[in-house]
Amino acid sequence: MLKFFLDTSILISMVMSHAGGSYELFKYAENNPKQVTLYINDYVRAEAHEVFSRNKQTKFLLELDKILAHPLWQEIDTTSDEDEVASLYLLDPDDAPIIAAAKNAKVDALISFDRKHLHTKKVEAYIGAPVITSGEALQRLRAQL
């Protein structure tokens, strides 16, 4: 069983294209619940909603709500103290709830397309897991078959 925390960039990609690796990861988790657990938190949900709301993209907001309503998601929360500590490991402290939640969930990887802020050695050391893309997550899942 692999455990992945998904950041907002993956959720946005999942909503915008059903042909990419992010949506494929969602479908894999839906069809193979004993092989993978996907984690998100309220911060990721809110940030994705804000991105689509800001651009008045109603079609994508509806798709986001549909995806988020699926029961496969595992929620993991953090405290403000945990977020504050996590912010010390980041270039952008706004991402603190993401890495604090990944750490709390004891994930096998944080899944993100944010190479500038999250794909760093400091973040990986803090969460105790690599930061990878959805395509790399799919490779890991297929390798365990």
Question: Which features does this protein show?
Answer:
145 residues; five-stranded parallel beta sheet; alpha/beta; globular; 54% helix; Rossmann fold; 12% strand; 5 strands
Second CATH tier, the architecture: 3-Layer(aba) Sandwich
Which geometry do the CA atoms define? globular
Low-confidence stretches: none
Task: Output the structural class.
Answer: alpha/beta
Order of helices and strands: EHHEHHEHHEHEH
CA distance, first residue to last residue: 11 Å
Strand content: 5-15%
Mean pLDDT: 95
Domain count, please report it. Answer: 1
Q: What is the highest CATH level, the class?
A: Alpha Beta
**CATH fold title:** Rossmann fold
Number of helices: 8
Radius of gyration: 14 Å
Q: What is the total tally of β strands?
A: 5
For the sheet with most strands, the description reads:
5 strands, parallel
| Biggest sheet: strand arrangement | 3-2-1-4-5
> Which oligomerization state do the chains in this entry correspond to?
single chain
CATH homologous superfamily name?
Answer: 5'-nuclease
Helix proportion range: 40-55%
Write the layout of secondary structure elements.
Layout: E1 2-6, H1 8-16, H2 21-31, E2 36-40, H3 42-54, H4 58-68, E3 73-75, H5 80-87, H6 96-105, E4 109-111, H7 121-127, E5 131-132, H8 134-143
Q: Can you walk through the features of this model?
A:
The protein has a 5-stranded parallel beta sheet with strand order 3-2-1-4-5, sandwiched between helices. By secondary structure, it is an alpha/beta fold. It has a single domain, classed as 3-Layer(aba) Sandwich (Rossmann fold), CATH 3.40.50. It is built from 8 helices and 5 strands, in the order βααβααβααβαβα. The mean pLDDT is 95. Helix 1 (8-16) packs across helix 4 (58-68) and helix 5 packs across helix 6 (96-105).
